[in-house]
Amino acid sequence: MRLSSSTHTADSLKMDANIVVMGTESVGKSALTVRLLTRRFIGEYGDIESIYSHSFMVDERRTTLNIWDSPCSEDLSVETSLFEKKVQWADGFVLVYSICDRASFNSVSRLIQTIKSTKDYLNADKAPIVVVGNKRDLHHRRTVLSEEARLLALNTGCHFCEVSAAENYHSVLMMFHGLVGRIKGAKLTTKRPLGFKGIVKSMSAVFARRRTDSF
Ligand SMILES: Nc1nc2c(ncn2[C@@H]2O[C@H](COP(=O)(O)OP(=O)(O)OP(=O)(O)O)[C@@H](O)[C@H]2O)c(=O)[nH]1
């Protein structure tokens, strides 16, 4: 058995991320969350506001997601302090609409604007936000084209995918994994004040560059 050589090594192999699932009523927020946690689709979900914890391995790194699933009511009243609290708490966002419900799609578009004006992402082209068109199995009742949602995601620097919580566990898993990747990227680009070591490193980098430039 191989033991980690230090706490630092163990820590660098761990990642914690807070994810908020938002969207209008009955788009399948709980269904997606429960699918990820249990691999099951149980059909009916209560109106319970909860933060669930879920761990899995990504690239040999133990990743723990804290997923905040809530009924839609507060998500739309974007002025509330709860909304503000959720946005500040979250490292990443799953914004859900139903492909059969245009109003739910319009509300995702508003949510993106509000989140982006509340959070200051350095890498705005790769915001840790995934736009999720759920209920793909109901394609015969579709009112939102995939192309529209893809365009919205492209224009706002979000990721996009269509899934069916009812029919497919794998695509739901991939959606959450994709978001974890974006969160990692966003964390790396967050500006942190430089400590003494950081300043020394930056200065060495500048001098090293000067030395190479002069050849
Ligand atoms: N056909 C189909 N039905 C789904 C899918 N996902 C969820 N549903 C159904 O849609 C209804 C609402 O699902 P929920 O997961 O409770 O939706 P929600 O967004 O959490 O709803 P609120 O908590 O009320 O905001 C339920 O009857 C689910 O069975 C899906 O992918 N396909």
UniProtKB/TrEMBL annotation:
Keyword annotations for this protein, in alphabetical order, are: GTP-binding, Hydrolase, Nucleotide-binding
Similarity remark: Belongs to the small GTPase superfamily. Ras family.
Can you state which reaction this protein catalyses?
GTP + H2O = GDP + phosphate + H(+)
Q: Does GTP-binding count among this protein's keywords?
A: yes
Q: What is the lineage of its organism?
A: Eukaryota, Metazoa, Chordata, Craniata, Vertebrata
What is the protein name stated in its UniProt record?
Answer: small monomeric GTPase
- State the InterPro entries in the record: P-loop_NTPase, Ras-related_GTPase, Small_GTP-bd, Small_GTPase
This enzyme's EC code(s): 3.6.5.2
